[in-house]
Amino acid sequence: MLATDAHGGFGGIAQYNRDVIDAMCGLERVAEVTVLPRIMPEAGFTHPAKSTYDLASAAGARGFITRSAAHGLGRYDVVYCAHINLLPIAAAVARARRLPLVLAIYGIDAWQRPVGLAGLFGVGAVSLVVSISQITLDRFLAWSGVAAEKCALLPNAIHAADFAIGTKDNALAQRLGVAGRPVILTFGRMSADERYKGFDEVLEAMPRLIERLPGLVYVAAGDGSDRARLELKAEALGVKDHVRFSGRVSEAEKADLYRLADAYVMPSSGEGFGFVVLEALACGLPVVASSTDGTREAVRGGELGAVVDPKDSAALERAIIEALARPKAILEGLDYFSFANFQKRLAAALAAVVRVQV
Fold first, then answer.
1. N or C: which end of the chain has fewer CB within 10 A?
2. How many Cβ atoms from other residues are within 10 Å of residue 137's Cβ?
3. Three-class DSSP labels, the chain
4. Which residues, 6+ apart, have CB-to-CB distance to 181 below 8 Å?
5. What's the pLDDT at 297?
């Protein structure tokens, strides 16, 4: 596996890669998974016994290319490329060894032809594309020329044991200043280059929401280069006292923050899937998702939560009010995204291209 990061990494793609590795290692006929991470944000991580990490690959671009070439001489049955930007290197190894090449795609990384080498080389060598969502797959097929029969859907997995309905953490509520108040929540990277998470849309809805629910607080969880602009926007809208910017949230604190909220709201426009939506659902939160991106698939088209057009402010406000009125509950349909089902889908997809029967 050539990956950006996985175990020891942070964010949605790292989590997805961890699940892929864990699922592969759980398959009886898989002997070993060798992982070459492009970056290694955190040392001292744990990983499955059947997986091996070559951390020398994280020593810059040259180190990644060198280690990829070196492993190309090893005895493997498949090359798994965990990001389209790494496809030229993965394709070179796969072609040299005449191995099946699997490409994983997630969201805006694959919605349009990538700039540079990733957009010019490698797609023709792909044996199998696993896509996190149908919207991502459709947009990838529109430019790539890859045949649809070479593709499989592999939506995120949710580890229900890591989440659940629980009581609100009083210390956290006091720290954020939300004790005794209704709370809506959005998780996401606040990037100036990717303003599609829905933070702006919720902030713009807040003045009218506060008129109906004067105690309402919006927790915008995450950090990044766009946070300062969002903070200024909250002030300009006159809702600064009703908005809390939590900053980056550790994995250990995530569930407590979900449990602090009364509804999860993500009117995004560029999400390939929206793993945080599954986490919110696994904590029993009523969810408001988008009708225009992959979060629609995370709520199964409306089965697990409301879907609204992010540009329809009136519909968004109604959906938020209705979500806040619903009780917390773990919905039966969430089992569609269980890790067991994830592993079955991955095994079925790999069996179509890998020489070793999985």
1. C
2. 22
3. CEECCECECCCHHHHHHHHHHHHHHCCCCCCCEEEEECCCCCCCCCCCCCEEECHHHHCHHHHHHHHHHHHCCCCCCCEEECCHHHHHHHHHHHHHHCCCEEEEECCHHHHCCCCCHHHHCCHHHCCEEEECCHHHHHHHHHHHCCCHHHEEECCCCECHHHCCCCCCCHHHHHHHCCCCCCEEEEECCCECCECCCCHHHHHHHHHHHHHHCCCCEEEEEECCCCHHHHHHHHHHCCCHHHEEEEECCCHHHHHHHHHHCCEEECCCCCCCCCHHHHHHHHCCCCEEEECCCCHHHHCHHHCCCEEECCCCHHHHHHHHHHHHHCCCCCCHHHHHHEHHHHHHHHHHHHHCCCCCCC
4. 215, 216, 217
5. 97
Rounded mean pLDDT of the chain?
94
Prediction pTM value: 0.91
* Rounded-to-integer distance, Cα 303 and Cα 146, Å: 31
* Residue 309 CA from chain centroid, whole number: 20
Give residue-wise pLDDT tens across range 157-167.
Answer: 999 888 999 99
